[in-house]
Every structure is written in C-alpha cells, then in structure tokens.
C-alpha cells in the first residue's frame, strides 16, 4: 500500500488526487444510504419511508459521532507520517482500535436497548413508531461492524491512502443494493429489510477489506504487539477527537431537533424531510470530501512545520468547492422536485421535500467555506474551536430559528429549513475571525484566503 506525502510538490494536483477517491467513496456511501430510501419508497408503505427517514437520521448521528471522534486518529497518524515517525503511527492505530471497540459496544447497547426511547424522543409519527424503533434496533445491533467499517477509512486517510476506503465503500454499496432488493422488494420486509441489508453489507465489506489489507504492504510494521492501550497515544486521540466528536454530536442533535419539529407536522412532512436529507447528502458531497481531505493534507504539513503550505491548500479547496456549490445551488433551488422525485413517487412528499431543499440550496453557496475551514482547523489541532463554532451555529441560530419558523411560518418547510444557512453564516464569520487570530498569535504571515 502506498501512502501519499503531502509535504512537497504541487498542492492542487496532490489535493485533488487524494480528494477524488474520498469524493467517490462518499458518493458510494450516499448511494447505498439512498438506495434504502429509494427501494423502500418504491416497494413499501409511506410509514416505512418515514421510519427509514427518522431511524437512519438517528443512526447517522451516532455514526457521525464515531467518525468525527476517529478524526483524532486521522490527525495523529497524519502528523506522525509527516514527521517521518511511522512506528508511532502504528502505536496510535493499535491504541485507537481498542478505544473504538469499546465505543462500538456502548453504541450497540444504546441503540438496541433504547430503540423505542429514541423513536419517542424523535416524535416518530404514531403510524410509523414501531417500524422506526425496529429499524433502529436492527442497525444498532450491528454497531461493532459499523465502527470497524468507518474506523478503517479514518486510519487509511491518515496514512494518505484514500483508495482503500473507496474499495471498502464500493463493496458495501454493491452488497447493500443486493440486500435491499432481496429483503425489501423480494421478501417485503420494508424498513426492517433495509436496516438488515445495511448491516450485512458493511459486515461483508469489513471482512473483505481486512483480507486485502493483510495482503498489502503498510508503510510500517503492524502486529499484535501494537494492540495495546497506551496512555500517551490514547490521550492524543482523545484530546484531538473529543472536541470534534462532541461538536458533531451537538450539531447532529440540532438536526434531530429540527426533524422532531417536522415530525409533528405529520407523516407526509416526515417522509418529505427524509427524502430531502438523502438528496442533501449528494449536493454536499464535494465540500464534505474537501473537509476530510483537508484534514489529512493539513495534518501532514502541520506535522512537518509547513503551515504556509497548509494555508495554500485551504485557499485551493475553497475555490474549487465553491464552483461546485454554485452549480448545486442552481440545480437544487430550481429543480429540486426532480431530485426528490427519484426517491418518492408521491406528489405531496416530493413537494414537501423540495420546499425544504430550497433552503439547503442556499446553504450550498457557503458550505464550501465552512467545511474547508473545519478540515483546516482539525488538521492543525484547533479542534476545540471547531467544537465551539459548531455549537454556536447549532444552538444560537439553527434551533431557535427552526422553532421560530415552525410557530410563525405556517408549517412552511422552506422557512424551517432556512435555519440551516442562517447558522452557517455565523460559523463562517467565526472561522474567518479565528483564522486571523491564530495567524497573529503564531506570528505567521497571513495568507489571503479569498
């Protein structure tokens, strides 16, 4: 396996070479999540669509906490690769595997035991309540698999390898599509079949990935001797990963609150926001891919003492992702009904989804700045600031505006959705302010970002 050295050479070509497999992996990840809703929408009831909408949002929130916390491994490993200390990278990975095994067990218990409680908290519509709870339990029962599946990606991105995670996602995507067609379309299992297909697909992906990794050549030796909980490496992972994980949890919580607000409007609105969220995953792919790639790229250069090069990468990422964001704005705002129609044949569900997507379309114009900044700050270990700006956006703007629009907006999905771009504006302002503050504090020359 060949890892990439990001500390020398042309920035744009290296960033794009690393980012494109990340983007394709995220596209495939979004595809197999979308296939669940697509197949359920075509072969099951509206209650199943609502259940997948609410249940998958809960599982995605818990998974995002896991992925965000594992960013501590991506950053720690990336920095040690940049510092030419491969043995310490191996020790970091070994410690991380133990930590995340424990986390996977905890999330399994929460999901399986608390399935009904989570559905109740989310105000799942009465008609879809039992189906939603069952979806959560089935997905939650496979959290150790979900943990292993996502942890592999974080480790190899830290090594500068974005192709192995792409392969893992590709395998999972293929088997998830097969599973959905068998369990949902064939056996008529509805939302439960979609959940079972997801877990089984990721299990197959993890098994095949481990077999391939054992046959590959890592940039360092890794064996059983590295599978130890070492305090110094654990503290590094926790110090970097905890603020990111906490931020993602609280931000995810804010979106769950918005979903709970919409669920109170009925099963059509609930299904509509579920469709909109699946579409949103696709229209946000490029800035999200740049965020993950930026973290790995910046971590190596920060570890090598090349902050100026990391700042140039930030500027490059913003410019490229903004071009894509503008195109997604035009497509989603004016033709969101076509995108939503892919996932549901019901006119009222499509209308509700398009109303909500118009707000997300506006957000496309600003996330190119926000996500690239977040990746940059993660890479230079300013994860406490990442947590702060995320919490401020969620709890000072997103949730209050959503509540306000629900009360005065007459049930308008667009007005409720506008809470999202409003919070992004505040977060971007904080990111720019922090950029100049940190540069001044470090006595580094300020790179012009825009």
What does this structure look like?
The chain is built from 17 helices and no strands. The chain has helices spanning 11-43, 46-69, 71-82, 86-113, 115-121, 129-141, 143-158, 163-186, 190-214, 231-263, 267-283, 285-303, 307-341, 347-379, 383-408, 413-417, 419-441. α2 packs antiparallel against α10, α6 (129-141) packs parallel to α9 and α11 (267-283) crosses α13 (307-341). The longest helix is centred in the C-terminal third of the chain and has 35 residues, at 307-341.
- The ordered H/E elements are HHHHHHHHHHHHHHHHH
Q: Please, how many helices? A: 17
Distance from first to last alpha carbon:
36 Å
Q: Which stretches are low in confidence, meaning pLDDT under 50 for 5 or more residues running?
A: none
Give a short account of the largest sheet.
Answer: none
Mean pLDDT comes to 86
What's the Cα radius of gyration?
Answer: 21 Å
Quick overview of this protein structure:
The protein is mainly α and 450 residues long. It has helices at 11-43, 46-69, 71-82, 86-113, 115-121, 129-141, 143-158, 163-186, 190-214, 231-263, 267-283, 285-303, 307-341, 347-379, 383-408, 413-417, 419-441.
Please outline the helices and strands:
Blueprint (H helix, E strand, L loop, with lengths): L10 H33 L2 H24 L1 H12 L3 H28 L1 H7 L7 H13 L1 H16 L4 H24 L3 H25 L16 H33 L3 H17 L1 H19 L3 H35 L5 H33 L3 H26 L4 H5 L1 H23 L9
Helix pairs in contact: 1-2, 1-8, 1-9, 1-11, 1-12, 2-6, 2-9, 2-10, 2-11, 3-4, 3-7, 3-10, 3-12, 4-6, 4-7, 5-6, 6-9, 7-8, 7-9, 8-9, 10-15, 11-13, 11-14, 12-13, 12-14, 13-14, 14-17, 15-17
